[in-house]
């Protein structure tokens, strides 16, 4: 019985090392598969006691997944912060070119040309051509305000579309993870499902902040922005409410969770749409309102070429959005009140208009300085977010490198495992042949 037991044990040993070789083969095949974590076949020693005829041997244990929850979460957290700052840098980067500071471009150039026209008219206030140039420059200025305000509104609209797409993708990922959970419940510990779940969770992390809870069977529960997103094989989708001026994210129960969206591209998009761009738009609207009011106030105190007070202002706007509704009233050149009330036919008001170019507002700023502050505000934010995105991008890359070292496939390591398993298999095969010969000899002796 001893030889037969040893023969059976050795045959089983060959099967065990064959599984080890298959595990190594699978690791090598998936060396470049995104999200794959190397596997190891556990070997379990059998009881060995020759006094009672137990010849020992080895049995297969479980296949161990090297996936590290800590390494995965480190990658996901870094990805959340990178997604947020990178999105903000991209969003504000799209509006930065709208505020040029180079000479002869954009709104500041239009302002300079308007005041240059009023200055020229102060030399010959009753010259029709000079008055027509003022109206032309006023129209140019209104067009610049309209275009700039409209471009900011378009940027917000485009971002709102991206928010909708991002919310849709978050829900799609939750649905795919629900399917993975369902498959895991039936298939148990499957490296392919683990890899798929890891890739989906990493993609989700760049979109929105979330917390995950892994069950003993590998299934994952998710809480996004503090609200339930997935449990078991059921997803609880979030939604976008853009019915008002703000973009609001609601959970499956309709609760506003916007304030709890603190990471990922969705966070950056929401901040761009709801705060950053509106702040710039508010600054531009304030600038347009202040400019129109001060110019209109000067003109209101003068008289036109007929010696009468003006009945209509030069500029009009709607309070809700001064920049996009900034308009020049259809005045004739003669109706421009370039003379002061005390000196009809003179250039008093033309001089006062020209002096507005260097006059300071209630904040102690000229028009040029106000525009410069607005442009600088955008530039500083873009630079800050780009720097932050670069830092978080480096942290993300480092976290991925650590994860790769922890659970990724090393071809050198697999080569060593392959040689070890191969030699063990060859030794077991040689032992099997020897035991088989001895068994045949023993059988022949018994005949």
How would you describe this protein?
The chain is α+β, with helices and mostly antiparallel strands. It folds into 2 domains: 2-66 and 408-446, no CATH class; 73-387, no CATH class. It contains 9 helices and 14 strands. The strands form 6 sheets. The protein has a 4-stranded antiparallel β-sheet, covered by helices on one side. Helix 2 packs parallel to helix 5. The model has no long low-confidence stretch (mean pLDDT 90).
Brief write-up:
The chain has 447 residues and is α+β, with helices and mostly antiparallel strands.
Counting DSSP H or I runs of 4 or more residues, the number of helices is: 9
Order of helices and strands: HEEEEHHHHEEEEEEHEEEEHHH
Instruction: Tell me the count of domains.
Output: 2
Major sheet strand order? 5-6-7-8
- Tell me about the biggest sheet? 4 strands, antiparallel
- Report, as a whole number of angstroms, the end-to-end distance: 17 Å
In angstroms, what is the radius of gyration?
Answer: 38 Å
Structural class by SSE content: alpha+beta
Key structural traits:
single chain, 447 residues, alpha+beta, 2 domains, two-stranded antiparallel sheet, 9 helices, rod-shaped
List the topology elements.
Layout: H1 2-29, E1 39-45, E2 48-49, E3 54-55, E4 58-65, H2 69-95, H3 106-123, H4 128-187, H5 191-205, E5 210-214, E6 220-224, E7 227-231, E8 234-235, E9 239-241, E10 248-250, H6 264-300, E11 302-303, E12 315-316, E13 327-328, E14 339-340, H7 348-355, H8 367-407, H9 411-446
Antiparallel strand pairs: 1-4, 2-3, 5-6, 6-7, 7-8, 9-10, 11-14, 12-13
Helix pairs in contact: 1-9, 2-5, 2-6, 2-8, 3-4, 3-7, 4-5, 4-6, 6-8
């Amino acid at each position: 019985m001893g030889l037969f037991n040893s023969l059976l044990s050795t045959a089983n040993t060959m099967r065990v090392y064959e599984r080890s070789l298959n595990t190594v083969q699978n690791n090598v095949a998936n060396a470049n598969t995104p999200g794959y974590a190397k596997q190891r076949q556990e070997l379990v020693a059998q009881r060995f006691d020759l006094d009672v005829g137990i010849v020992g041997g080895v049995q297969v244990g479980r296949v161990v997944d090297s996936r590290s929850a800590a390494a995965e979460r480190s990658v996901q957290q870094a990805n959340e912060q990178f997604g947020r700052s990178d999105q903000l840098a991209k969003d504000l980067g799209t509006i930065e070119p709208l505020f040029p500071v180079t000479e002869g471009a954009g709104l500041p150039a239009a302002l300079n040309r308007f005041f240059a026209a009023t200055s020229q008219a102060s030399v010959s206030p009753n010259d029709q051509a000079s008055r027509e140039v003022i109206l032309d420059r006023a129209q140019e200025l209104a067009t610049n305000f309209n275009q700039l305000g409209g471009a900011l509104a378009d940027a917000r609209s485009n971002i709102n579309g991206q928010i909708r797409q991002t919310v849709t993708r978050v829900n799609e990922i939750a649905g795919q993870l629900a399917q993975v959970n369902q498959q895991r419940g039936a298939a148990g510990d499957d490296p392919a499902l683990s890899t798929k779940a890891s890739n989906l969770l990493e993609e989700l992390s760049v979109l929105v902040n979330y917390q995950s809870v892994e069950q003993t069977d590998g299934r994952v529960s998710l809480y996004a922005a503090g609200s339930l997103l997935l449990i078991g094989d059921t997803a609880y989708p979030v939604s976008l409410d853009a019915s008002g001026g703000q973009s609001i994210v609601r959970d499956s129960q309709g609760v506003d969770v916007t304030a709890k969206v603190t990471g990922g591209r969705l966070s950056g998009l929401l901040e761009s749409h709801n705060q950053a761009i509106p702040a710039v738009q508010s600054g531009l609207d304030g600038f347009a309102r202040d400019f129109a009011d001060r110019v209109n106030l000067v003109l209101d105190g003068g008289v036109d070429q007929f010696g009468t007070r003006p009945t209509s202002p030069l500029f009009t706007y709607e309070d809700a959005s001064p920049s996009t509704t900034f308009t020049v009233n259809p005045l004739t050149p003669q109706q421009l009140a370039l003379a002061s009330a005390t000196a009809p036919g003179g250039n008093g008001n033309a001089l006062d208009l020209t002096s507005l170019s260097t006059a300071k507002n209630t904040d102690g700023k000229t028009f040029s300085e106000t525009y410069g502050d607005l442009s600088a505000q955008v530039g500083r934010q873009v630079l800050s977010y780009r720097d932050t995105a670069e830092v978080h991008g480096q942290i993300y890359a480092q976290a991925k490198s650590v994860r790769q070292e922890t659970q990724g496939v090393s071809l050198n390591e697999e080569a060593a495992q392959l040689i070890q398993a191969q030699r063990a298999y060859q030794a077991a095969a040689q032992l099997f042949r020897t035991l088989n010969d001895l068994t045949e000899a023993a059988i022949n002796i018994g005949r």
